[in-house]
């Protein structure tokens, strides 16, 4: 089994489904299941809470008792079953329950694939960056395909395409995989480092809080970007292309980051990310038109990619190797899930008042992040 090919194939297929879920799920609930924006916001907000709890507790537990391959099978199969259960349900209560279940299983596939990548990196020479780039490409492909298909056949196709994508991902999991991924974890004698130890590193709390603010500030974009473009009367055929502009700039940033930013401190990177994020949301609000929205997409390279890169740089230098998985778990649960859950509810309330306010409201995170970095970067030297 070619390890590189296996990893690239899994990244590509997972991000195909991620490209269906992340930009389109809220719009699908509103347009196909006929929920209001506030109802969809409540459902997606609590879904993010379920995602955070799953990432922090369920995924680590399953990973301790199953091999990497079986972890992928478990979460893929569970996600597919829950997705099928969506079909007959149209009530708010039913959709709320299904989304909680879906959010407990499906997003855990991301750390599951990443964990498999880490295992393969420890047991052989693979090019992680090249494999991960297939994931980004898969996301771009999915967004384009879904925008075209939903434009031609309606939003109900979003669910059916997710079912097809998860079924394909499940088929892949039953194909031959690298032998090391089939090994069940063995308990070793000796102490394990708890998450509490992270907070003994004084700067970690500051950095974590900053990235929670910066990543959470994308809540309105992820949940309402699709329907906002519909509000601007953008043809559904072009919505996917517009959303992909952000991903393209994200890919370009990651591709060049190690070349141009090796001497930058994480605090400096986060400061630029916070400023770029603030400018991005102000532009979307101040100029409610398609050209400005497209232009603001370029700032995704700062608001998301630079903030993420800064955190990875920070933990790789400031933390012992044994604590990096714990740091990644907290980051995934709090910065990538829980903060977005809370801000999704705020964004939904603001969107009901005026769509542009949902984006402007995100500076409630980015401006404090700027101030926090300026006040602490010299004192904690991060």
Automatic annotation (TrEMBL):
Keywords: Cell inner membrane, Cell membrane, Membrane, Transmembrane, Transmembrane helix, Transport. Its main location: membrane. GO terms for cellular component: plasma membrane. This is Putative 3-phenylpropionic acid transporter. It is found in: Cell inner membrane. NCBIfam families: mfs (NF037955). One of its GO terms (molecular function) is lactose binding. The gene is hcaT. The chain crosses the membrane at residues 12-30, 42-62, 71-89, 95-113, 134-153, 159-184, 204-224, 236-255, 267-287, 293-312, 333-351, 357-376. Residues 6-355 form the Major facilitator superfamily associated domain. It comes from the Bacteria. InterPro entries: HcaT-like, MFS_assoc_dom, MFS_trans_sf. It is a multi-pass membrane protein. It holds the Pfam family MFS_1_like.
């Amino acid at each position: 089994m070619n390890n590189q090919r296996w990893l690239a194939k899994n990244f590509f297929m997972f991000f195909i489904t991620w490209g269906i879920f992340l930009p389109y799920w809220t719009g699908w609930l509103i347009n196909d299941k006929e929920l209001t924006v506030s109802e969809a916001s409540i459902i997606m907000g609590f879904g993010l809470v379920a995602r955070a709890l799953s990432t922090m507790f369920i995924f680590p537990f399953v990973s301790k008792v199953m091999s990497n391959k079986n972890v992928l099978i478990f979460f893929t199969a569970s996600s597919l079953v829950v997705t099928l259960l969506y079909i007959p349900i149209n009530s708010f209560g039913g959709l709320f329950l299904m989304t909680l279940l879906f959010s407990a299983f499906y997003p855990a596939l991301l750390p599951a694939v990443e964990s498999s990548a880490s295992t393969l990196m420890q047991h052989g020479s693979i090019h992680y960056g090249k494999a991960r780039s297939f994931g980004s490409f898969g996301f771009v492909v999915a967004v384009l395909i879904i925008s075209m298909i939903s434009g031609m056949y309606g939003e109900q196709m979003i669910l059916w395409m997710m079912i097809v994508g998860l079924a394909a991902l499940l088929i892949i999991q039953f194909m031959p995989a690298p032998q090391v991924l089939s090994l069940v974890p063995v308990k070793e004698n000796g102490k394990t480092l708890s998450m509490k130890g992270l907070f003994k590193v004084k700067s970690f709390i500051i950095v974590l809080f900053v990235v929670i603010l910066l990543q959470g500030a994308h809540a309105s974009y992820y949940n309402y970007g699709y329907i906002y473009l519909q509000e601007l009367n953008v043809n559904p055929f072009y919505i996917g292309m517009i959303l992909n502009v952000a991903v393209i700039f994200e890919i370009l940033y990651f591709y060049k980051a190690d070349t141009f930013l090796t001497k930058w401190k994480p605090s400096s990177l986060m400061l630029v990310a916070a400023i770029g994020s603030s400018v991005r949301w102000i532009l979307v609000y101040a100029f409610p038109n398609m050209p400005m929205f497209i232009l603001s997409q370029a700032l995704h390279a700062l608001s998301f990619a630079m903030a993420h890169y800064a955190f990875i740089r920070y933990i790789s230098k400031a933390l012992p190797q044994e604590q990096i998985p714990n740091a990644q778990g907290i980051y995934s649960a709090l910065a990538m899930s829980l903060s977005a859950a809370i801000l999704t509810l705020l964004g939904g309330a603001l969107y009901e008042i005026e769509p542009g306010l949902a984006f402007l409201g995100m500076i409630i995170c980015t401006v404090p992040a700027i101030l926090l970095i300026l006040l602490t970067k010299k004192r904690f030297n991060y």
